[in-house]
Amino acid sequence: MRANLCIILAFAGFPGTLRASDLPVAPLPAQAPAAAQALPPAFDLTRHDAAPFLERRAALQAAFAQAEGAAAAGAALLDMAEFYLAQALVPEGRSILSGLDGLPLAPAPAARGDAVALALDLLDPRGAPLRDADRARLDAGWEGWADRPLFLALDELRRGSPAEAAAHLDGALLRLDAYPAPFQAAVLPGLLEAAIEAGHWQMARDLAARFKDHAELRDGSAYHFLLGRAAHAGGELLAAFDSYALVAAGSDRWAQRARLALVRLGQETGTLTAAEARVLLAQARQIWRGDALAVETLQALTEAEIALGDSVAALEVLGELFSSYPDTPTAEAARTRAQGLLETYYARAAEGDIPLSDFMLGHRQISRDYRLAPGFDRLAEVFAERFLAAGASDVAAREYGMIHDYLAVARDLGLAEVAPERLDALRLKQAEALLTGGQHEAVAALLARGIDTDSTALRDRLNLLQARLFDATGAPERVLETQVTLPSEDYLRIKAEAHFAREDWTAAKAAYARLWHRQGDALRFGDAINLLLAAHRSGDRAQTLALAEAFPALTDIPQWAEIATSLMQEAPATLPLREEAARARVDDAGRTLDRLRAIQAVSN
Fold first, then answer.
1. Are 145 and 39 a contacting pair, CB within 8 Å?
2. Would 536 be classed as within a structural domain?
3. What mean pLDDT comes out for the span 310-317?
């Protein structure tokens, strides 16, 4: 309550006192290199407890208002900044320090200001990284400074390394009594945790005994969590559970840590299933966000999802990690982990290991976080190809269109380099999927758009799709107008069928023969029938007989032997009308072939 009152008074103003708006708000002035600076004096903040908070603050503000000259004003501001540091009021202290901007300070006052700024940074609950100059001073520039061990310990704690902080505890405890109660209350929980992590039990008992001197710590969440931590470290698991559970229902950071500790304890003892751990961590995720503790929660939830084999849920959590904490090592590690999960998931889906319904839901969920991620367009194509192969051409067409549109947007916004050939290829894939689904009007509109590149392969593919569209819509004349540089087997077949549909038997025979020469024994039975019919109806008896001899390898239809015999049998020369008899046999074979072709069409 007192802290809240202080904030209101400092920023809203108090009758007869200095307003924060009266002070400069520019950043701290640049300082000389750390090696050239004097050591700051040892802090003696207990002097600020000599009077009640409001009385002491009013006196300091009055001293600043009466200060004459830069040196006196700087000294008054430093006194006020130390006053707020003594109360562990970080924003207020920083606001006062900003008033030093533009004041010419001697080396000693400048070092004192730097020490106050460093202390406020280390007390900041948001845990922002130290500035480079502060880091240099703390690491080496201020060796011999009396308060350095305490601040080194606080720095290790702020960086999440309580065990490393323990190395500085002896020196830190020698200075702790130089600070007033609010400051001690702010740092005691961290120092106790460092002692517990290092197994310094006597020091831990001494630190824990200090908690009773602070109402906000006595019987508070930090105290009970750290009791649980000590019990956990000592193997007293039931006691640890009781302490964690006592704290876990709260709403502060110690409660969140207790929730995570309960999950770890349950996992270590096997009393918590993976599914139960996921439920608890998902709840903890919603309760706490925005700092290193939230990152720890998300990382634990990721591992729980992976343990349950739920890659999609794990990817969603990783997506929050790298989107909420960009440009950090955490984000980079999350991206790397996500890439491996994505590759594995889509490889399994391509092999058919994931049911189509699950794949559709999973891909939809994944796309929300990863649609613009580098390389995701290739994985999305796996989705489209899988559904196209399963006959869901409409789903595939929509996905190809979406991949194209997102890549185009990413290119236009400068988020990614996308080759024009890539976009053309996706548009043609979309057209092919639409054509497979019989959506001829949509295909015509896409093909009318054409392509933007000079690629011969893409141009041939476009013309093939146009030929397929004309064939599907009953326009054989338009099929014959199309041309490709390197015709595929599909294109040769479509052109041959167009000649056949127009009853241009000579052209159909030549086209099917070209396809036969390309495919050999792999020629489809229907194509073989059409070639035989075209040769027969064009009057090419030699070709007809050659085909009749060659084609038995293409089918096991019982009637084929009879057809081949009828076509190849020579009429006796002594019989009258042998030519007519031969023609009759050929015509009869032709009718049989027509029937077989009809059967083939139905079976296809």
1. yes
2. yes
3. 97
